[in-house]
Amino acid sequence: MAMNPQALPDAEFLFRLAEAADRETLPRFRQSGVVDNKRAESFDPVTEADREAERAIRALIAATYPEHAILGEEHGAVGEGPLRWVIDPIDGTRAFISGIPVWGTLIGLLVEGRARLGIMSQPFTGERFWADGTASFRQDRTGRQRNAVRPTTRLEAATVFTTSPRLFQGALLDRFLAIEAAARLTRFGTDCYAFAMLAAGQVDLVVEAGLQPYDIVALVPIIEQAGGIVTTFDGGRPENGGHIVAAATPELHAEALRLIG
Length: 261
What we know:
InterPro entries: His_9_proposed, Inositol_monoP_metal-BS, Inositol_monophosphatase-like. The chain contains eight helices and 15 strands.
């Protein structure tokens, strides 16, 4: 049975979750705290800010919506049911530990497997990007605005972002390089911030490899409710992560898939 949209949490609850995370992340930013490595074979950093921000988010969800399930990057999955929160307390931990303010807290809500609500909070710059189920918005120190993607339809006119070309291997790297060669401008880094800039009409295309659900769920409604498109490389839904293409227009999305899919 489909969920009643009126039963969903509202934007104010998203803000409360973001504020709970901000209280843990912002005081620790640029403070040279301890950085642990989650993997022996490569550098996958995690900090106290990651762990404590996720604990704060989970505690508020559990107190307000105890029937909701939760999946978080640092503390795993709990609960079952049609409503599941998906949390990345700091998307861009490498940027966080480097003192660069392009990281963000990602909090998204799945409704029967579909991303419906989401927020990205960047407390150092004072920015938030969110989707309330019907529209996408952003707020910074100048005020609140509705997000809308750019009308870019051709790759030759597009600004493209990815975290790093090193994420692509073999034939996939060749395909990404074809996109880079065709695009007007390609830039690297910024993790979730690039997706937020797509929704805000500053970037046209974001291509990423090997994302986890907590890397993308919060961003999907922010982009889709701004008029954009987010899929896997084979055109499927993006909620489970994987290789992801986010585009401003259907035409640009189709052109990217022809090169990368």
